[in-house]
Amino acid sequence: MGPQAKRRKVASKVEEINFDAADRESFLTGFRKRKQQRIKHAQEVAIKKAKEMKRDERKRIREERTAGFQRAIEEHQRQLKKLQAAEDGSDGSDQDSQDEDVEDQDWEGFTEPPAVDYEAEYIDEDKYTTVTVEEMDTSKEGLLRSAVDESDIENEDSESASKATAEPNPSAEQSKKRKSDNKPKKKKKKFRYESKEERKVTRMKERASKSRKANARRERS
């Protein structure tokens, strides 16, 4: 007998296929929308990862700083212990001897400064000035006396300045007069009427110039 024929499976037939028009339209027109959603989701994931990385970095830096501070404190305490041990082992004889030397010395007070009374002259090409330096009395009466002297000097200076401004300067006035005299005087133009012949000549010149201008305009046009 020959081989048996294979039986084909008979699939159930679909009687009808229905499409949802709204879903089909949203699928066909939503490519850009879905792309933007994917981009936004990727950006959110990247931002979240960056925040986590920053948080981890700050945590690591904070831990390193605390460890460094702890090491510094331990080193400081170790050095303090060494210093205390060295001080406890040393004798206090040197300090006692220094205190005795200081007590033996007698304090003689402050030394008086030298006197400052002197005069100095300053000569310039056009000026001659004498400066007098005197020792100042620090008492109340001395300060009042110096203030009165300064006010008198200021009053004298102001009076001399006002006198100098009030007095006229003859040399300046003379120089102004000389300058005004040296300026050349402008000559006034004399006005006179033209004669008949002169007026006739000027009219002829005006007519000739007008005719030339008219001819030139005609040629250009």
TrEMBL record:
Residues 50-221 are annotated as: Disordered. Residues 88-109, 149-159 have a biased composition (Acidic residues). Residues 176-191 have a biased composition (Basic residues). It is found in: Nucleus, Nucleolus. InterPro entries: Nucleolar_protein_12. GO terms for cellular component: nucleolus. GO terms for molecular function: rRNA binding. Keywords: Coiled coil, Nucleus. Residues 50-78, 192-209 have a biased composition (Basic and acidic residues). Belongs to the RRP17 family. This is Protein required for cell viability Rrp17. It comes from Aspergillus violaceofuscus (strain CBS 115571).
